[in-house]
Amino acid sequence: MKRTIYLITLLRSTAVLLACSLPALTASAAAVATARPLPRPATDVPVSGRVTSADGSGLPGVTVLVRGTSNGTSTNSEGNFSLTAADGGTLIFSFVGFTTQTAVITNGVPINIVLSEDVQKLSEVVVVGYGTQEKADVTGAIGSVSGHDIASQPVADATQAIQGRVAGVTVTQNSGAPGGAGGTSVRIRGISSAGNNSPLYVVDGFPLPSSDAGGNAVENQLNSISPNDIESIDVLKDASATAIYGVRAANGVVIITTKRGKAGTANITVDGYRGVQQVWHKLNLLNAEQYAVINNEARIAKGDAINPKFADPKSLGAGTDWQKAVFRPTAVIQNYSLAATGGSDKARYAVSAGYFQQDGTLNGSNFERFTVRANGDVSLNKYVKIGNSLSVSHQEDRQLNTGNDEFGVLNNVIQAPPTLPVYNPNGTWYEPTATVDNYIEPNPVLQSLITNSKFVRNRILGTFYAEVEPLKGLRFRTNVGADLIFDNDNRFTPSLGANSPRNSVAGAFSESRYNPSYLIENTLTYDRTLAEQHHLTVLLGQSAQQFSYSNVLAGRNGYLRNDLQTINNGPINASLGNGGTGIAPPEDRLASYFGRVNYEFAGKYLLTATVRYDGTSAFAPGYQFGFFPGASLGWRLSEENFIKDISTINNLKLRVGYGKVGNPLNAGRFAYL
């Protein structure tokens, strides 16, 4: 915009200069005519060349126009062009998503142009659910974050990377657990409903489960996806934008699009980083001497005798710094990825592999993730296209869980007296007791390290689509997919001897869970421009999704040895087991029918209307279906003539919207019974 303003100013200044010099120019016209010969008209010459992208592949459909004329052409499927134009003229090369370039015609010499991608223009396309729209034409509240911004941050969970980048979206880490295993809360425009307030996550068109087998909201939905694989994240914020997802959209929708291949030369990308983390702030707590002084003063004020152990506070020295003992000085974080993309006009591919590892700042906690992704698109002919999105991930993490959770450890770090040691003189763990130490909480360091725990998740998320375009602008698409989650949780707490106040008996716990979900969707889209100023897009669709689960768990206590840590090595008479299978409420099955109409007139006036008829088994028979409408209007004021002349306005749009959405998790498990 600044360049345009400068050019206009320059032209106006030149016009004034010419007007002021007009009398002198007129007076000497005859002299100039006799002293200087008239210019000869430019000779037309044949011009040809090729337009390519940065990777060397030809760009079809590039507009090639002679400046100041209507003479032009476009490149063919190989990026070649040819036309006849005046020698010395200027050719303008323009293509959607690429920076416009110019070249001067010189004696018909072939002109080869390399167009570079215009990042700003490419980012103007956003995913709106079951389709895309130009950002300028969107009438709902939608925020977007590019994959470059996501991958540039050292985070395990991609949702952490959108923190502070989308207005109205609050991202909070529920804990400092490595790998985002503690969950990352995303709240879109605040608390929008009772109970669960997590948004719906959609990855490459597949809506992820909003709850686990126990019916609890799932916060860490994306820590099985490598941030390097993400092309963009689009956040649907208001009801008019989210109504297309109906009963699951009360808390907003987060749409993740992974990277896909592009026609051209194969590209191989290697990316990696390694760093360290530290606890950014520690509390200024009392040392052993200071603690003894305060303790003595308190007992004297109460009228009690002082503790003999604290009779000489100076002899105690600094004592134990529990924060230093529990936190690692530095915790490693590292990420490496290898990706290959490429293809032709007929087939394109994008494959990648990644490794992420993060040590927690708390002793004993760590997280590892291996990911593999393969996305492909194949055009069988000009009518039929097929493709897939497939990701496989394996993650392992050790976190503090059950009674020995991290919050308990951190509380005890603050409360534990600095006069207590971490170890006994013989090197065994020191365990505080009420009778000896007047302190009953466990040793924080022991609490953080005693349990040998390992959680393993293997996840396969894949979709396959087939798209048919029998007529120009009319597309039928079928999308089927599955999300298969295999969890295995194993924990063993060893015995510290019969005299241990808290850990006299060894115990083990193990649980295996299988949580699959399946999806099938069919959509029909009609996209057409009518009479140049009218653009219409109509979408009709059907969707069905099912969530299932099965689990087996067992636990045993009274192990005779600490080195045999599996369930089947425990005492037979102390076995405890449980398990179950079934359709997982509250979102066991969903049946949906939806439609959307987008209308644009003259690039200024916009209308979006959405309907969805959703059915879910979370509700009682007879009350399982609901109707969810949405509508929004937009007016691009910046396209009006009375706004275009205001240089300070780049893009101005007014919009208003209405929508109705729901949240089935708030129904509760079998609440209608």
Account of the protein in words:
With 673 residues, the chain is mainly beta. The chain has 12 helices and 30 strands. Strand 2 and strand 3 (72-74) form a beta hairpin. The relative contact order is 0.10. Residues 1-39 have low confidence and may be disordered.
Features:
single chain; 673 residues; mainly beta; 14-stranded antiparallel sheet; 12 helices; elongated
Provide the fold topology:
Layout: H1 2-20, H2 22-27, H3 29-35, E1 44-52, E2 63-66, E3 72-74, E4 80-86, E5 90-94, E6 101-104, E7 111-114, H4 119-122, E8 125-127, E9 132-134, E10 142-146, H5 147-151, E11 169-173, E12 184-188, E13 200-203, E14 206-207, E15 230-236, H6 239-242, E16 253-258, E17 264-277, H7 288-302, H8 322-326, E18 331-343, E19 347-359, E20 366-379, E21 384-398, H9 406-415, H10 434-437, H11 444-449, E22 452-471, E23 474-493, E24 506-530, E25 534-559, E26 575-583, E27 589-601, E28 605-616, E29 625-636, H12 641-644, E30 653-659
